[in-house]
Write a structure and sequence with these properties.
7 helices, binds zinc ion, HIT family, subunit A, alpha+beta, globular, binds 5,6-dihydrouridine-5'-monophosphate
């Protein structure tokens, strides 16, 4: 039996070389071929300015947790960054591991949480923003990565966006978050370990450079690309429409991108998010974020800048993929294959409907 037959028809497991975890794929369970039909969700119309929004220009934010006056946003015209009023991490004094047993371990964790508002317009999303405005978001992310990373005690800067109420996003005003902290958290740490090991085992080669070359040659999981970035549904994708955005050049972070690459990142983000919205004709929810070099002062030649998009939707605007039962207790599972998802995303328009 050929690999292609197994991948398309037989229950099988695929290996994620970044996290070193397996995903169970059950393509035979997808009974119905894709009809291309889409449910029209109620079109939500939002005003360009919402007087009740805590992110719109000039508005008051929520009352801070300790009480006191509510902060007021400036009349910003581009992107706007502020310290998260309900930060999950706090700066403070350095301290040692606190609990004293090998099974009950804890240590204080210091950090900084910021909110990055993408646009003064309450009614837009990345997909609907002009590419120049997305480029401004890329520049803001870059500045934040550099400024937070320059703090001597910050080792990792996680930039991300939760989009859509289904992903726990509290406000439709386009925005993302940054959590910077003194440790490298679990997911990037696992990826880094894999990248380091691959580099050692393959004479200095990069896992993601090699992976990208294979995907470009195969073509079947590619969604779209430009001169500097490619989007693939990873071979090992867990979420139905999961994608990865990979830089063509082996760079570790936003800070190393050229002007042309920053433009290209804005372009690919606009095109990918538009394709997503056109899958079910809804503003597609997702969590997305980027993985870049830790800011621990060390060289990280193994790092390869990339973004992950994790959208929860499966069959329509309403039907999401549940990560329950087997997924919680054993390992992730999916029915629709990465190849089929890539084909669907490829067939969508890059013009916003
Ligand atoms: P999410 O939509 O991804 O939850 O992000 C919004 C963040 O904005 C959230 O982390 C913060 C919340 O703590 N926030 C403020 O900092 N000030 C406010 O007035 C409301 C929300
Ligand atoms: Zn708003």
């Amino acid at each position: 039996m050929s690999l292609a037959t197994v991948l398309a028809q037989r229950p099988h497991r695929r290996f994620n070389p970044l996290t070193r975890e397996w995903v169970l794929v059950s393509p035979h369970r997808v009974q119905r071929p894709w009809q291309g039909s889409v449910e029209q969700a109620p079109t939500e119309t939002r005003p360009a300015y919402d007087p009740g929004c805590y992110l719109c220009p000039g508005n008051e934010r929520a009352e801070p947790p300790g009480g006191g006056p509510r902060p007021r946003n400036p009349q910003y015209e581009g992107t706007f960054v502020f310290q998260n009023d309900f930060s999950a991490l706090l700066p403070g004094e350095e301290s040692e591991e606190v609990a004293g047993s090998s099974l009950l371990r804890a240590r204080p964790e210091r950090g900084v949480c910021r909110v990055v508002v993408f646009s003064p317009r309450h009614d837009l999303t990345l997909a609907q923003m002009p590419v120049e405005a997305i480029r401004a978001v890329v520049d803001t992310w870059t500045e934040e990565y550099q400024a937070l990373g320059a703090l001597p005690w910050i080792q990792h800067v996680q930039i991300f966006e939760n989009k859509g109420a289904i992903m726990g996003c509290s406000n439709p005003h386009p925005h993302g978050q940054i959590w910077a902290q003194e440790s490298v958290p679990g997911e990037p740490a696992r990826e880094l370990a894999s990248l380091v090991d691959y580099r050692e085992a393959h004479g200095g080669r990069c896992l993601l450079c090699d992976y990208l070359a294979e995907e470009v040659a195969a073509g079947e999981r590619l969604v779209c690309r430009n001169a500097h970035f490619s989007v693939v549904v990873p071979f090992w994708a867990v979420w139905p429409f999961e994608t990865m955005v990979l830089s063509h050049r082996h760079v570790g972070s936003l800070a190393e991108l050229t002007e042309a690459e920053r433009d290209a990142l804005a372009d690919i983000l606009r095109r990918l998010t538009t394709r997503y919205d056109n899958v079910f004709n809804v503003s597609f929810p997702y969590s997305m974020g980027m993985h870049q070099s830790p800011t621990d002062g060390a060289e990280h030649p193994e790092c390869h800048f990339h973004l992950h998009f994790y959208p929860p939707l499966l069959r329509s605007a309403q039907v999401k993929k549940f990560m329950v039962g087997y997924e919680m207790l054993a390992e992730p599972q999916r029915d629709i294959t990465a190849e089929t998802s890539a084909e669907r995303l490829r067939s969508r328009s890059e013009t916003h409907g």
